Amino acid sequence: MQPRTHVTLEDVARAADVSLATASRALNGMRVTPQLRDRVLAAAEQLAYTPNAHARALAGASHRTVGVICHDVSDPYFAAVAGGVMRVAGDKDLLVMLASTFRDPEREIAYVSMLRAERALAILLIGSGFEDPHWERALDAELKPYLDGGGRVAVVSRHRSLKVDSVLPENRAGAAAMARALLDLGHRRFAVLTGPPALTTVTDRLGGFRDELRKAGVSLAPADIVEGPFTRDGGYGAMTELLARGLTATCVFALTDVMAIGACAALRDHGLSVPGDVSVAGFDDIPIVRDLTPPLTTVALPLQQLGEKAMELALTDNTGRRRRILRMGGEVVVRASTAKLA
């Protein structure tokens, strides 16, 4: 059989009817059941799968390689954080391998498995963890032997079960501060555009915002909360659905800036003005939002510093492997997308 150069690990996993992580472990000689190993190896042989030669070459220089796994590097949030990682890595003459999971938990586990096989110096996970016990156990099973073997791991954002060095943006406190700022502007009727509920970032930001409103005697009804992907199109779709329900809120809070950008576009396409008809606020302070018309009110996080600090933690010796946690706060920046009510 002639090799198919475009055969991927995903093709092998699909043919063997196993997860990406299991396929990666089997092909890299890691612990899986004999039955699963045989299925994966048979599928790889049938498809004439050949591991990436370039990745194998990197294994020989693994002490100079850092793996960075994020949700979506095209999202300006992750691009900014990854930029901080790369700045510190560049100062240390380290090569950064960057992967996007697109918020697929199985893909995240598979990438960790691959980086273990390539003997990377450090693995950084950038982005929200998942409220999923199965994912937590599977990821911990991949990271523990890597750490036991001298590997280093740091994460940005909350991963509840991982006992590794963490840089934690203050998502709950930042969302609570945003609620106070919007209440101070006179708003009492709110809607929230949220992301997938399995993400810890959603749990923290939505919880902080809702709890602070509750302290002021303001409630959020289920119909006031609309879920969508953490993308511009997700924000556009969520805002469109909110309008279809009959918008009663004077202010819409999107849990990320990219969702807020989509929400503003949807309002504009429906003939509504921001903030004339409805105020809009976001979270993160990605660079573009200050140049919007009107510029976006948001919670500003030190995005590049999040990446820098995570990289520094991963490169700093941690004798005894005591977990180190660095918390980094956000600051509400009120701009012209939110109006003061009389």
TrEMBL record:
Annotated HTH lacI-type domain residues: 7-60
PROSITE patterns on file: HTH_LACI_1, HTH_LACI_2
Cross-referenced Pfam families: LacI, Peripla_BP_3
Keyword list, A-Z: DNA-binding, Transcription, Transcription regulation
Superkingdom, natural source: Bacteria
Annotated Gene3D superfamilies: 3.40.50.2300, lambda repressor-like DNA-binding domains
Single GO molecular function: transcription cis-regulatory region binding
Listed SMART domains: HTH_LACI
Protein name: Transcriptional regulator, LacI family
Organism: Micromonospora eburnea
